[in-house]
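4.2 Preliminary Data

To establish feasibility before requesting continued support, the project team ran the inverse folding procedure on a target of 363 residues. The structure was first converted into the token representation described in Section 3, and no sequence information of any kind was made available to the design step. The complete token record follows.
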């Protein structure tokens, strides 16, 4: 929050938006402080609240009853659910039974929803994060950061909290180096502890230099026309191409010279695998040549979640683009197995899984 305020977020506007949450009276305080030789913004939430423990359903209900817009509610609930799932796994409980102590306190709720509101007010398009520094991390922090690049710091104190990790995991589309940017502003938020190194968080706001290329990846497209190969081999051919690393394989019927019917075999390949895939096409079919061209692809951020339905557990693939959900796709094989087991139409299992995913993860 300090970094976002330092970046230019209006404290008055933030207070107004946070006032839409059904919380006890609180006050926001922002001031400049020095950490090491760096000047940064320190953000605090002042409250007289005595209750410091809330369950996940209580927090979700609190967010749902707020006057905030639906996208902000959904993003906030996603962060709290991420925290709930991590804590539940650590303590061997269900997320609904986990009691949040620090996270359930009013100031932590304001921190999380303030971050959600801040990202929205600053109109953040794409969010990138560096690999995450950890030192004396809480178990929940490590659980939340699974799959994220991290590095250790020789400090005997916690420097990335579960809350900070959950916000990063929810917003960051990539973890790595800073992308090409035209820098517009830089904000520094101050931590409470005074460390040997400056205890600050930096946020950089910028315009991507080439927005047309932002988020695209370079791939190779391999194509060949086959008109004299036994079509029974196509299943085996597709399987071999996928095993060799092809990202996608498809076939289209075409007519070649002298009106001969044929099939165009297409394979999408990561850069560097072209030679192996060309060899498979040349050896498994009777073609004498393969066309190779470069393609750019932009894809949605994908994550796999599991939901409990009345028929059983189903894996659901979630697609996100520009920080919003664009697709919710239950896994076909799992749905088919449950439909057969319970003797119900497949579409009923699909609909149930989609509905649970949207409800459980705030989509």
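Position-by-position output of the design step:
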């Amino acid at each position: 929050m300090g970094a976002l305020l330092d970046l230019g977020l209006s404290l008055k506007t933030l207070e107004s938006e946070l006032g839409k949450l059904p919380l006890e009276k609180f006050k926001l305080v922002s001031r400049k402080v020095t950490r090491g030789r760096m000047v940064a913004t320190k953000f605090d939430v002042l409250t007289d609240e005595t209750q410091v423990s809330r369950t996940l359903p209580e927090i979700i209900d609190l967010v749902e009853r707020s006057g905030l817009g639906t996208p902000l509610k959904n993003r906030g609930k996603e962060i709290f659910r991420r925290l709930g799932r991590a804590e539940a796994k650590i303590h061997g409980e269900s997320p609904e039974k986990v009691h949040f102590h620090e996270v359930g306190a009013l100031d932590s709720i304001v921190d999380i929803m303030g971050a959600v509101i801040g990202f929205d007010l600053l109109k953040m398009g794409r969010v990138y994060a560096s690999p995450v520094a950890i030192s004396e991390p809480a178990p929940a922090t490590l659980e939340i950061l699974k799959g994220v690049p991290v590095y250790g710091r020789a400090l005997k104190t916690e420097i990335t909290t579960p809350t900070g990790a959950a916000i990063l995991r929810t917003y960051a589309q990539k973890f790595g180096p800073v992308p090409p940017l035209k820098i517009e502003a830089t904000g520094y938020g101050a931590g409470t502890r005074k460390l040997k190194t400056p205890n600050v968080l930096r946020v950089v706001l910028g315009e991507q230099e080439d927005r047309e290329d932002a988020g695209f990846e370079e791939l190779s497209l391999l194509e060949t026309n086959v008109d004299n190969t036994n079509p029974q081999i196509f299943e085996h051919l597709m399987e071999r191409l996928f095993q060799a690393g092809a990202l996608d394989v498809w076939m289209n019927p075409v007519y070649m010279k002298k009106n001969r019917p044929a099939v165009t075999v297409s394979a999408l390949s990561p850069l560097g695998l072209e030679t192996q895939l060309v060899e498979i096409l040349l050896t498994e079919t009777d073609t004498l040549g393969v066309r190779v061209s470069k393609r750019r692809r932009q894809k949605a951020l994908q994550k796999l979640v599991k939901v409990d339905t009345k028929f059983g557990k189903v894996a659901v693939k979630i697609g996100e683009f520009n920080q919003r959900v664009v697709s919710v796709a239950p896994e076909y094989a799992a749905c088919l197995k449950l439909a057969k087991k319970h003797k119900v139409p497949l579409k009923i299992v699909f609909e149930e899984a989609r509905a649970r995913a949207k409800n459980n993860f705030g989509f």
